[in-house]
Amino acid sequence: MEILKKVFEFVMDILETVTFVGSIFIVVYLFVMQPNEVRGQSMDNTFRNGEYILTNKLAYKFGEPQQGDVVVFKSPEDKDIDFIKRIIGIPGDKIMIKNGQVIINGMALSETYILPPTYPLEGGYLQDGTEITVPENHLFVMGDNRPRSSDSRAFGPVPIQDIIGKVFFRYFPTHRIGTIGRLYNQ
Asked: Would you name the residues annotated as active-site residues?
């Protein structure tokens, strides 16, 4: 009978530990950070198809989005799909694409992380030579692989409420592990 009692206590200890660890994981996943898989080529060469990243869900609860941040957000067309793009413009910024160059607030954007040039998407939200102002509570985002990216050039600025979080770490593949910094020069 004593052995049965010890086995029962041991099993209960394991269940308590598993429940505790599981609860912590759920809280972290729901409120702090979440893993995402990069799908598609819209962020090549910064992020490649099949890479795994961590997204900080608290970044914009305690700070403001900044130009150059890489974010994960809900697709404007299908909220079940997450997109990864770079913030190009924040509320109030004036954005124009002219002759293959992105112009922010009257200054040409220096983007060393892409292969220029950048063109508007045919039939999209932003047209060549037309300036738009990013509305309040919205962000203008673009992929780093502009010819293969469906982004704000097509669907317009993204509501900040649709932002899931800021990408801060790549954990797979192992040879590309590391933190993600802001790449943005103006």
From this structure: 42
Report the C-alpha gap between 171 and 54 in whole angstroms: 7
With CA atoms as reference, report the closest residue to 134 among 161, 99, 104, 97: 104
| DSSP-based three-state secondary structure for 86 | strand
Q: How far apart are CA 93 and CA 160, in angstroms?
A: 15
Which sequence spans correspond to the domains of the chain?
A: 36-173
d(CA 113, CA 185): 10
In contact, 34 and 57? CB cutoff 8 Å: yes
Fold held by 36-173: Umud Fragment, subunit A (2.10.109)
Query: What tens digit of pLDDT does each residue of 131-167 get?
Result: 999 999 999 999 999 998 999 999 999 999 999 999 9
* H-helix segments, 59-178: 152-155
Bridge partners (DSSP) listed for residue 158: 139
Provide the β-strand partners of residue 165: 72
